[in-house]
């Protein structure tokens, strides 16, 4: 009987994971946030250029663009939180941004990862060390949800991103640069697009986790018997 239950649990777990795979693949390829700002000689980023500060992607984030062209940081979305009227927040997982100042063979840097955008406060937060602080605040957020909050898609753009006072303080202190100049930099916009998981997706995730836990317990029990 023990072997039969164990076998059945494996079959159920396998079926749940097979059914879940397309949802995971879709989330991984369609949900993203793209932070875009101009680098090089543009007036938007003149302050960063004069300070000698570079912004680089870390974790799962990727970068496109060159020295004199607009730069985009692609931040994959791993979590979407909704409320009755629209999106509440989106999380960008392990991806993040690094602010760096290099001179000769020395460099200073400060990293912000675990990025989360809160629609209520228009704030992109990040974790540096053991502290989570507001990193950017947007001047405006536009966009909408299509198809409903249970299984729809969304597209929002947060424009006019400026460092928060807390971020300016952290970055200027870590890099030894002017806090006044940093506060003037417009980091452009963050476009957030993706699909809201269907309720059945959450059910499949729960089924898969429960099945895996059951199999692990049965295996340990059998090993103790033998």
Compile the SSE list and pairings.
Elements: H1 2-30, E1 32-37, H2 46-51, E2 53-58, E3 62-64, E4 71-76, E5 79-82, E6 87-91, E7 96-103, E8 106-118, E9 123-128, E10 131-146, E11 153-163, H3 165-175, H4 179-183, E12 189-195, H5 199-225
Antiparallel strand pairs: 1-4, 1-12, 2-7, 3-4, 5-6, 6-8, 7-8, 8-9, 9-10, 10-11, 11-12
Helix pairs in contact: 1-5
Key traits:
twelve-stranded antiparallel β-sheet; alpha+beta; globular; 12 strands; 226 residues
Mean pLDDT: 78
Largest sheet: 12 strands, antiparallel
Determine the strand fraction and express it as a percent band: 35-45%
Low-confidence stretches: 1-5, 15-29, 200-205
Helical percent range? 25-40%
Overall SS class: alpha+beta
Shape descriptor reads globular
Summarize the structure.
The chain is an alpha+beta fold and 226 residues long. The protein has two domains: 1-30 and 198-226; 31-195, no CATH class.
Q: Could you characterize what this model shows?
A:
- 35% of the residues lie in helices and 40% in strands.
- The longest helix is centred in the N-terminal third of the chain and has 29 residues, at 2-30.
- It has two domains: 1-30 and 198-226; 31-195, no CATH class.
- The chain is globular, with a radius of gyration of 22 Å.
- The chain starts with a helix and ends with a helix.
- α1 runs antiparallel to α5.
- It has helices spanning 2-30, 46-51, 165-175, 179-183, 199-225; strands spanning 32-37, 53-58, 62-64, 71-76, 79-82, 87-91, 96-103, 106-118, 123-128, 131-146, 153-163, 189-195.
- It is α+β, with helices and mostly antiparallel strands and 226 residues long.
- Strands 1, 2, 3, 4, 5, 6, 7, 8, 9, 10, 11 and 12 form a twelve-stranded antiparallel sheet that branches.
């Amino acid at each position: 009987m023990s072997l039969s239950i164990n076998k059945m649990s494996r079959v159920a777990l396998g079926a749940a994971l097979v059914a879940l795979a397309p949802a995971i693949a879709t989330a991984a390829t369609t949900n993203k946030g793209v932070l875009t700002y101009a680098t090089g000689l543009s007036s938007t980023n003149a302050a960063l250029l004069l300070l000698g500060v570079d912004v680089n992607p870390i974790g799962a984030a990727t970068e496109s663009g060159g020295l004199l062209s607009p730069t985009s940081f692609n931040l994959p979305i791993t979590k979407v939180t909704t409320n009755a009227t629209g999106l509440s927040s989106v999380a960008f997982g392990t991806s993040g941004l690094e602010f760096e100042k290099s001179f000769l063979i020395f460099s200073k840097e400060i990293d912000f990862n675990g990025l989360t955008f809160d629609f209520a406060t228009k704030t992109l937060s990040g974790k540096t060390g053991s502290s989570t602080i507001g990193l950017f605040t947007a001047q405006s957020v536009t966009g909408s949800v299509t198809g409903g909050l249970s299984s729809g898609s969304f597209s929002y753009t947060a424009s006019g991103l400026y460092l928060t006072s807390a971020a300016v303080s952290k970055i200027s202190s870590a890099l030894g640069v002017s806090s006044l100049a940093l506060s003037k930099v417009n980091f452009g916009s963050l476009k957030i697009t993706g699909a809201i998981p269907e309720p059945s997706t959450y059910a499949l995730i729960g089924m898969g986790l429960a099945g895996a836990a059951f199999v692990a317990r049965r295996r340990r029990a059998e090993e103790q018997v033998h």
